[in-house]
Amino acid sequence: MSTDHNFSVVGKSLPRSDARIKAVGAAQYADDIFLPGMLYGKLLRSPVAHALIKSIDTSAAEALPGVKCIITGQNIPKIKYGNWRLVPESQDEFALAIDKVRFIGDEVAAVAALDKDSAEEAIRLIKVEYEELPGAYSVEESLADGGPVIHDEYKQDIPNISLDRKIEYGELDKVFAEADLILDDHFTVHAVSHAYMEPCACVAEYDHDGRLTIWTSTQAPYFVQCLLASTMEMRENDIRVIKPFVGGGFGGKMEMRPWEFCAAFIARKIGRPVKFTLTREEELSTGRRRHPMNIHSKVAFSKDGMLLGKEFNVHLDGGAYNSMGPTACFLCGNFGAMLYNYPNYRYYGAHVYTNKPPAGAMRGFGAPQALFVAETQMNVAAEKLGIDPVDIRLMNAMESGDEIPGVATISSCGFKESLVKVAEMTDWREKRKNLKPGQGLGLGCYSFISGGVFNWFNTRYNFTRAEVRAFDDGTVHLMTMASDIGQGCDTVLRQILAEELGLQITDIRLTAADTAVTPQADLGTWGSRVTLMAGNAVRKAAQEIKEELFKMVSLKFDLNVIHDLRCGDGKIYPANRPDRAVSFGDAVRMAQRAKRGEPVIGYGSYTPRNKGLVTPAFSFGAQVAECEVDQETGAVEVKYMTTAHDCGTPINPMSVEGQLEGSVHMGLGYALCEQFIMKEGKTLTTTFLDYKIPCAEDMPPGVSVHVDTYEPDGPFGAKEAGEGLVSPTAPAIADAVYAATGYRCMDLPLTPQKILAGMKKI
Amino acid sequence: MSTDHNFSVVGKSLPRSDARIKAVGAAQYADDIFLPGMLYGKLLRSPVAHALIKSIDTSAAEALPGVKCIITGQNIPKIKYGNWRLVPESQDEFALAIDKVRFIGDEVAAVAALDKDSAEEAIRLIKVEYEELPGAYSVEESLADGGPVIHDEYKQDIPNISLDRKIEYGELDKVFAEADLILDDHFTVHAVSHAYMEPCACVAEYDHDGRLTIWTSTQAPYFVQCLLASTMEMRENDIRVIKPFVGGGFGGKMEMRPWEFCAAFIARKIGRPVKFTLTREEELSTGRRRHPMNIHSKVAFSKDGMLLGKEFNVHLDGGAYNSMGPTACFLCGNFGAMLYNYPNYRYYGAHVYTNKPPAGAMRGFGAPQALFVAETQMNVAAEKLGIDPVDIRLMNAMESGDEIPGVATISSCGFKESLVKVAEMTDWREKRKNLKPGQGLGLGCYSFISGGVFNWFNTRYNFTRAEVRAFDDGTVHLMTMASDIGQGCDTVLRQILAEELGLQITDIRLTAADTAVTPQADLGTWGSRVTLMAGNAVRKAAQEIKEELFKMVSLKFDLNVIHDLRCGDGKIYPANRPDRAVSFGDAVRMAQRAKRGEPVIGYGSYTPRNKGLVTPAFSFGAQVAECEVDQETGAVEVKYMTTAHDCGTPINPMSVEGQLEGSVHMGLGYALCEQFIMKEGKTLTTTFLDYKIPCAEDMPPGVSVHVDTYEPDGPFGAKEAGEGLVSPTAPAIADAVYAATGYRCMDLPLTPQKILAGMKKI
């Protein structure tokens, strides 16, 4: 990676600040927290997919020694919650089921006991009488006439469609009438698991001052704080949410969840700390997942390959509750018209309830589905029109200055360069001509957002805020509610701050993600928002500090007002007189003197404004998968992955590399093997082995390059990295498999069985 | 207590915010903290009072299983430390002795082991070869010609006088020549222990980010942070000091101490957390203590009882190191001329090294000694001049507007009212006439400072600072580095904040005394500084919030600019239109809207300015002790204590009451029984039983009244309470004993043996 900008800390592959503590095993995750007198909690989950709760008998469980508390839906406030606070009627969950269960795994009761065994035993002793109802286990069953109504108390225009969204611009019907090529395809994409290494866990403590503290494995401490407050009928700021180390989230930990409520509620009720830790089985059988979708995509091209328009109809299989479905429904429509210029576009998305574990936010969030469709159709069109897939993309690719109607104007954009680069690196045109039988080369591309704008959580705060305290010992302390969940923002934000102040990251102490002490508020880690948004806030806070210190240096050297001043190497100096330098610490000392003892503190906030309702900046990239398909077994081996991507300035290239590797892993699983096998709402694949998550040895080698852009709205030119990258892998692999076998996949995952069937071998 | 001010929260005896958690045993003190992999530390202390260290052999100790680290003075940076950073040459301690030990208990080595037993065993196995030197165990021995030089590397004008102080004003020699009555007396006062319930303890952890955290039982986290930084050669802000619950300090926990250094140093050296907890025996035999003093006081009166002047010569027996001796030396001279108007005054104080455990700061700090002398001489003069002790005091008492030359002008002053009140309450004049044999009534008075001004620690920060975050849920969060060590400032500061904002204390979350997150900086809890100084900072921070919220209310109701606005009952409203009220939370919400999402935060700092070099405000009071002395045994029984005192507005009267009871207990022990019996530098009284701390059953009944004043420089009129109150008890009891026996004590403590000798019975 090269850059015209002369950065000192930004752009360097510095080791993560959490690397050592994690490597030695000293990092404390929520489950590592033990408090005196702490109880162990366990949830009773519904064994049936759709039923009325007729009665719950907890007497035998209560009689069990060691059991300290049992709660059911009858004990808790009848308050629904959900992340879409802006649309209160979308909030459709109770922390524990009241009257009705809607999926296998729906939380029915919670136990807290002296030990885990007693808690589990108590769960088994709770007797629940259910009156089973017919279930709907697919979009089709849910929307069929006379199908079961899953949320009967919540009025919907079409039963079980909890919400829908339309986007329309241009004259689509006109172009469909005139187009040279129309592709009209149905796709299905499946649910996959976040498969974060750390199952959800939390410890709640209610203190002697009437306040609640919860340590929880979350991506969004502020959401948990607010939603616990509403469901517990407490004031937000009587609740303190602390994010300990978190072992991955990928969108699966960005809501308040029932165990957080139950831990808090029981802790308050009986005055003892309570811990809940989910098992892997619970995570896989009842956890949030990527939205399965039924997609009908009709796309029109001119004969020379220009995109004329697209009609995009999506039914999201949302499972039993809305969860983050409204956003998925919203974003999928946006992603359907990104990456290329679609002059005419019509989207209809509907979020459909089914009696399955709810889908939620997941890395890429609408993009992997929309782009699997878009990229597959691009590859089909290229073939049908006799244009190289790279060329047809270059013709239609977005570039800087392009507008997505009603959404945004593209600022930095390295998409075309990514395409050119990836074609060069793979020797694309030559290699495609010389494929042996069973070999395939496929292309997939992506664009993604750098954080969202639409304020569905209805925060009253700026989207993010940073406080930077500068000290005369040459250190600074960064306080932010940005949440490192393994993606590395603790390091990245320190790099941004160090760069701005001319310090080293070792000069920076960080306190993050504690709602009681870090600045109000940050919306959390999702939508690839942290580097750009929290980074901008950090930079602004640092700039406040700089302004103050520059005055001191100016005073000390009696500088002319036109002098440019710089921070660098721990010093502050006039740009043209670096000999006249004051150390950072000495400048702070002067500033404190000048304020007669007041500390030197800078504040910065960031909320995207004048950026439409989607995002302030878009990332782009292209990926080529080289595969071999075993002609006998249909097994796909990905031999090599080549990626060129534009994430603006990579603040920490090694960290971006890590994101890319993780994305390839996740994309690989999505494309080829991961899936929830379900039977009437019951998840059968409840271990990683059955679920078929790729192993380390399944990972292909690969190479990637950063395409140089500088995002004017990002800190030091940075934008999204690592979430969008999950999208191109499935369409690239599917395209390679097509090249290798002639089977064009429009129904993920791409299992050997489907390939063999596609090859007419079975 | 009554007041003209119409307070809602201030002046109310609200339960302490820490009452419940302490009552149920859930409060975590430093020794309650357990970290994974934590080691237990133990100190090796010198068994000899003055010696050169010739060699230390740790090999046998190191070979002991379970021993993980041993350090001696040879392993640590050769950096001296001490609280008087303003005068670097006064910093005379190494964390572990290097080359020389100076008292029995001087820290020589430290061990960290897997368990306490191994640490203790290892301490026994360390072999130290000493070359003993002659010791000086009293001021006389120390100042005798040819006495041992205790700090030979540190040049002194007079050997073993580490520092001295002079005060002089008026024409003292002239008034001595003209006075009608001159009292010329020698007094000795002894050392007593702080006897805090919680022995010192700390846990240090060096993290994987190169930073150190220490939880320590301290009154002054900032001091520990700074002095650890200098002795560990770290940057201040790479060190985080957290004050957990602290079980009393009384001045004994306001310095960095060797175990804090050793815990930190070993934690850094070997990468494991380390805990040190002192034993009661260590505390009593080696801990800091009140300065013993030899005092020569010559005081002149006119025949009508007017004080003409005073010459006050004090030798402080400082023990082996300066510790807080410079301040004691400074304050004793100030206290010698307080309470009454001394038109002419000369003070000489000298801090003398001896081979004993160092004396340090202790509740009252120079005042109990100076006032025992002043009050005793006042009682003697009253008798000699035939004036009632109350009357002679009233004639000379300071009052509002009086000036102490070079020190301060007295602002609020309820001294005369206290005297009148205590005389009324005890029926003083009548009761004194009707004493039976063995009965006595005695009077003692005090004045004290409300925090110090002279910046001996050389902080670069304001003396205290508060941050108040206001939330739209109607709560506020107070962040302060003020340290509650049991005296109750967590409650008092919340009362001040609640009063200012018209809230209840339950609306206030408090985060305190954590150098990494609470505002830089606060000097700590000592010198009765917290209520006034931190209270003022809190009030200023709250006023910033009010200003901002008042604008919102004004906007909402389109108020004329001249409207007075009020906070009360959780609302903000125009004073004359309370119906036009906005809830506090709604006003915050409006303010946030007006700032487009910025949080509502107020900051306040306080540093006394234009208040001289001693204190911004003085408390006053008078106390009468009623005693009976057993004529056979000389045993004194205090039958009743009556106190009238002026602490300005008592923020929490119940808390002041608690301070008073504690003061009586401490004053009782100081007057009658507590003492360190020592032999050649060795403390023989190493248990509370031997040391003779008064028990609950020794406590006399009593009554107290607050005399109403309003201190203009204090928050809501408050000033010092609870430290000055420790001074009047000893002179009052001694005066009562004189009345009962004819024995005038000028040599504390007032043991039965001395009384019997004074009565010529032995």
Written account of the structure:
- 2 copies of one chain form a homodimer.
- By secondary structure, the first copy, chain A, is α+β, with helices and mostly antiparallel strands.
- The first copy, chain A, folds into 3 domains: 19-26 and 459-606, Aldehyde oxidase/xanthine dehydrogenase, molybdopterin binding domain (Aldehyde Oxidoreductase, domain 4, 2-Layer Sandwich); 33-133 and 197-248 and 253-286, Aldehyde Oxidoreductase, domain 3; 293-454 and 614-758, Aldehyde Oxidoreductase, domain 4.
- In chain A, 28% of the residues lie in helices and 24% in strands.
- Chain A contains 20 helices and 30 strands.
- In chain A, the strands form 8 sheets. Chain A has a 7-stranded mixed beta sheet, sandwiched between helices.
- The two termini of chain A are 47 Å apart.
- The mean pLDDT of chain A is 96.
Kindly provide the radius of gyration of chain A, computed on alpha-carbon positions and rounded to a whole number of angstroms. 27 Å
- In percent terms, what proportion of residues of chain A is strand? 15-25%
- Most extensive protein-chain contact, per-chain counts: A-B, 48 and 48 residues
- Assembly state: homodimer
Decide which structural class fits the backbone of chain A: alpha+beta
Based on DSSP secondary structure assignment, what is the total number of beta strands of chain A? 30
Determine the number of helices of chain A (DSSP H or I, runs of at least 4 residues).
Answer: 20
State mean pLDDT of chain A (0 to 100 scale). 96
Q: Per CATH, which architecture of the largest domain in chain A?
A: 2-Layer Sandwich
